[in-house]
Design goal:
There is one protein chain. The chain is an alpha/beta fold. It is 33% helix and 32% strand. It is built from six helices and 13 strands. Helix 1 runs antiparallel to helix 2 and helix 2 crosses helix 3.
Protein backbone atom coordinates (compact mmCIF):
# COMPACT_ATOMS: atom_id res chain seq x y z
CA UNK A 1 0.00 0.00 0.00
CA UNK A 2 1.31 3.43 -0.98
CA UNK A 3 1.14 4.99 2.49
CA UNK A 4 3.84 6.93 4.31
CA UNK A 5 3.31 7.85 7.96
CA UNK A 6 5.16 11.06 8.83
CA UNK A 7 6.01 10.45 12.48
CA UNK A 8 8.14 13.51 13.27
CA UNK A 9 7.88 14.26 17.02
CA UNK A 10 6.66 17.83 16.47
CA UNK A 11 3.89 16.63 14.16
CA UNK A 12 2.79 13.94 16.59
CA UNK A 13 2.81 16.38 19.52
CA UNK A 14 0.73 18.97 17.69
CA UNK A 15 -1.66 16.33 16.38
CA UNK A 16 -2.32 15.13 19.92
CA UNK A 17 -3.30 18.66 20.94
CA UNK A 18 -5.61 18.92 17.92
CA UNK A 19 -7.36 15.68 18.89
CA UNK A 20 -8.25 17.02 22.34
CA UNK A 21 -11.94 17.93 22.54
CA UNK A 22 -11.03 20.97 24.66
CA UNK A 23 -8.82 22.53 21.96
CA UNK A 24 -10.65 25.63 20.69
CA UNK A 25 -11.07 26.95 17.17
CA UNK A 26 -8.15 29.40 17.28
CA UNK A 27 -5.64 26.80 18.47
CA UNK A 28 -7.04 24.12 16.15
CA UNK A 29 -6.66 26.45 13.16
CA UNK A 30 -3.08 27.43 14.08
CA UNK A 31 -2.04 23.84 14.74
CA UNK A 32 -3.49 22.66 11.43
CA UNK A 33 -1.44 25.26 9.56
CA UNK A 34 1.72 24.39 11.51
CA UNK A 35 1.37 20.64 10.93
CA UNK A 36 0.66 21.22 7.25
CA UNK A 37 3.88 23.19 6.90
CA UNK A 38 5.86 20.46 8.67
CA UNK A 39 4.32 17.74 6.51
CA UNK A 40 5.07 19.77 3.40
CA UNK A 41 8.78 19.24 4.11
CA UNK A 42 8.34 15.47 3.81
CA UNK A 43 6.07 15.36 0.78
CA UNK A 44 8.46 17.60 -1.19
CA UNK A 45 11.53 15.55 -0.26
CA UNK A 46 11.92 14.17 -3.80
CA UNK A 47 11.71 17.48 -5.68
CA UNK A 48 14.48 17.60 -8.31
CA UNK A 49 17.48 19.88 -7.83
CA UNK A 50 19.86 21.50 -10.27
CA UNK A 51 23.32 22.96 -9.76
CA UNK A 52 23.73 26.70 -10.20
CA UNK A 53 26.70 28.99 -9.82
CA UNK A 54 26.31 31.92 -7.46
CA UNK A 55 28.59 34.50 -5.93
CA UNK A 56 28.70 34.76 -2.16
CA UNK A 57 30.30 37.72 -0.35
CA UNK A 58 33.48 35.61 -0.32
CA UNK A 59 33.72 33.75 -3.64
CA UNK A 60 31.88 31.97 -6.43
CA UNK A 61 30.47 28.54 -5.68
CA UNK A 62 28.21 25.86 -7.08
CA UNK A 63 24.99 25.36 -5.13
CA UNK A 64 21.76 23.42 -5.49
CA UNK A 65 18.36 24.96 -6.19
CA UNK A 66 14.99 23.60 -7.18
CA UNK A 67 14.94 22.58 -10.82
CA UNK A 68 11.83 24.56 -11.66
CA UNK A 69 9.32 21.78 -11.05
CA UNK A 70 5.79 23.17 -11.25
CA UNK A 71 3.58 22.33 -8.27
CA UNK A 72 -0.14 22.62 -7.64
CA UNK A 73 -1.92 22.48 -4.30
CA UNK A 74 -5.55 21.31 -4.25
CA UNK A 75 -7.40 21.83 -0.96
CA UNK A 76 -10.68 19.92 -0.79
CA UNK A 77 -13.37 22.30 0.46
CA UNK A 78 -13.79 23.18 3.10
CA UNK A 79 -11.40 21.75 5.69
CA UNK A 80 -8.53 21.60 3.19
CA UNK A 81 -8.46 25.40 3.21
CA UNK A 82 -6.96 25.27 6.69
CA UNK A 83 -3.88 23.50 5.32
CA UNK A 84 -3.22 25.77 2.36
CA UNK A 85 -1.27 28.58 4.03
CA UNK A 86 1.10 26.11 5.67
CA UNK A 87 2.07 24.82 2.23
CA UNK A 88 2.30 28.26 0.64
CA UNK A 89 4.70 29.48 3.30
CA UNK A 90 7.19 26.92 1.98
CA UNK A 91 6.13 26.82 -1.67
CA UNK A 92 4.89 30.34 -2.44
CA UNK A 93 5.01 29.83 -6.22
CA UNK A 94 2.65 26.85 -6.19
CA UNK A 95 -0.68 27.39 -7.90
CA UNK A 96 -3.78 26.62 -5.86
CA UNK A 97 -6.88 24.96 -7.25
CA UNK A 98 -10.06 24.12 -5.35
CA UNK A 99 -12.45 21.17 -5.40
CA UNK A 100 -15.82 21.27 -3.65
CA UNK A 101 -17.90 18.16 -2.97
CA UNK A 102 -21.01 17.35 -0.97
CA UNK A 103 -22.53 14.03 0.01
CA UNK A 104 -25.75 13.04 -1.71
CA UNK A 105 -28.24 12.30 1.11
CA UNK A 106 -29.68 9.29 -0.72
CA UNK A 107 -26.66 7.61 -2.28
CA UNK A 108 -24.15 8.95 0.30
CA UNK A 109 -21.72 9.41 -2.60
CA UNK A 110 -19.81 12.65 -3.27
CA UNK A 111 -21.20 15.12 -5.80
CA UNK A 112 -19.03 17.85 -7.31
CA UNK A 113 -20.38 21.37 -6.84
CA UNK A 114 -17.23 23.41 -7.52
CA UNK A 115 -13.95 22.93 -9.34
CA UNK A 116 -11.35 25.54 -10.27
CA UNK A 117 -8.01 24.18 -11.45
CA UNK A 118 -4.81 25.69 -12.91
CA UNK A 119 -4.87 26.02 -16.69
CA UNK A 120 -1.53 24.21 -17.14
CA UNK A 121 -2.68 21.16 -15.22
CA UNK A 122 -0.80 18.61 -17.33
CA UNK A 123 2.53 20.31 -16.55
CA UNK A 124 2.21 20.24 -12.75
CA UNK A 125 2.71 17.80 -9.90
CA UNK A 126 -0.35 18.02 -7.65
CA UNK A 127 -0.80 17.58 -3.93
CA UNK A 128 -4.37 17.13 -2.72
CA UNK A 129 -4.74 18.25 0.89
CA UNK A 130 -7.51 17.38 3.34
CA UNK A 131 -7.19 16.85 7.11
CA UNK A 132 -9.29 13.68 7.05
CA UNK A 133 -9.22 10.49 4.98
CA UNK A 134 -12.33 8.69 6.23
CA UNK A 135 -14.35 6.58 3.77
CA UNK A 136 -12.15 7.75 0.90
CA UNK A 137 -15.07 8.46 -1.42
CA UNK A 138 -14.60 12.24 -1.58
CA UNK A 139 -10.86 11.98 -2.12
CA UNK A 140 -11.29 9.36 -4.84
CA UNK A 141 -13.68 11.77 -6.54
CA UNK A 142 -11.11 14.56 -6.18
CA UNK A 143 -8.41 12.41 -7.76
CA UNK A 144 -10.85 11.50 -10.56
CA UNK A 145 -11.50 15.19 -11.26
CA UNK A 146 -7.78 15.95 -11.51
CA UNK A 147 -7.05 12.97 -13.74
CA UNK A 148 -10.02 13.69 -15.98
CA UNK A 149 -8.63 17.18 -16.50
CA UNK A 150 -5.19 15.91 -17.49
CA UNK A 151 -3.18 15.64 -14.27
CA UNK A 152 -0.31 13.16 -14.58
CA UNK A 153 1.21 13.25 -11.10
CA UNK A 154 -0.83 13.33 -7.88
CA UNK A 155 -0.04 12.86 -4.19
CA UNK A 156 -2.47 12.94 -1.29
CA UNK A 157 -1.73 14.43 2.12
CA UNK A 158 -4.00 14.07 5.17
CA UNK A 159 -3.49 14.36 8.91
CA UNK A 160 -5.42 11.29 10.00
CA UNK A 161 -6.69 8.36 7.96
CA UNK A 162 -8.90 5.34 8.49
CA UNK A 163 -7.67 1.98 7.15
CA UNK A 164 -10.92 1.60 5.20
CA UNK A 165 -10.30 4.84 3.27
CA UNK A 166 -6.68 3.99 2.58
CA UNK A 167 -7.69 0.62 1.18
CA UNK A 168 -10.32 2.15 -1.09
CA UNK A 169 -7.95 4.75 -2.53
CA UNK A 170 -5.23 2.16 -3.11
CA UNK A 171 -7.71 0.05 -5.05
CA UNK A 172 -9.05 2.94 -7.11
CA UNK A 173 -5.78 4.82 -7.64
CA UNK A 174 -2.72 2.64 -6.87
CA UNK A 175 -0.46 5.26 -8.50
CA UNK A 176 -1.30 7.91 -5.87
CA UNK A 177 0.99 7.99 -2.83
CA UNK A 178 -0.71 8.82 0.48
CA UNK A 179 1.05 10.81 3.21
CA UNK A 180 -0.48 10.90 6.70
CA UNK A 181 0.48 11.82 10.25
CA UNK A 182 -1.52 8.90 11.66
CA UNK A 183 -3.37 5.80 10.52
CA UNK A 184 -6.17 5.58 13.07
CA UNK A 185 -8.12 2.56 14.27
CA UNK A 186 -11.29 2.47 12.16
CA UNK A 187 -14.47 4.20 11.02
CA UNK A 188 -17.48 4.19 13.34
CA UNK A 189 -21.07 3.56 12.26
CA UNK A 190 -21.47 7.24 11.29
CA UNK A 191 -18.38 7.32 9.09
CA UNK A 192 -16.21 9.21 11.58
CA UNK A 193 -12.58 8.27 12.11
CA UNK A 194 -11.84 6.70 15.52
CA UNK A 195 -10.19 8.26 17.50
CA UNK A 196 -9.90 10.94 14.81
CA UNK A 197 -10.36 14.69 15.18
CA UNK A 198 -14.13 14.98 15.07
CA UNK A 199 -15.47 17.14 12.24
CA UNK A 200 -12.34 18.99 11.11
CA UNK A 201 -14.30 21.59 9.14
CA UNK A 202 -16.52 22.49 12.08
CA UNK A 203 -13.57 22.66 14.47
CA UNK A 204 -11.58 24.75 12.01
CA UNK A 205 -14.31 27.32 11.32
CA UNK A 206 -16.24 27.18 14.59
CA UNK A 207 -19.44 25.82 13.05
CA UNK A 208 -21.66 22.86 13.89
Amino acid sequence: MNVKVIDHPLIQHKLSIMRNVNTGTKDFRELLEEISMLMAFEITRDLPLQEVEIKTPVTKCTCKMLAGKKLGIIPVLRAGLGMTNGFLKLIPNAKVGHIGLYRDPETLMPVEYYSKLPSDIAERDFIIIDPMLATGNSLIASIDILKNNGAQSIKLLCLVAAPEGIKLINEAHPDVDIYVASVDEKLNDHGYIVPGLGDAGDRLFGTK
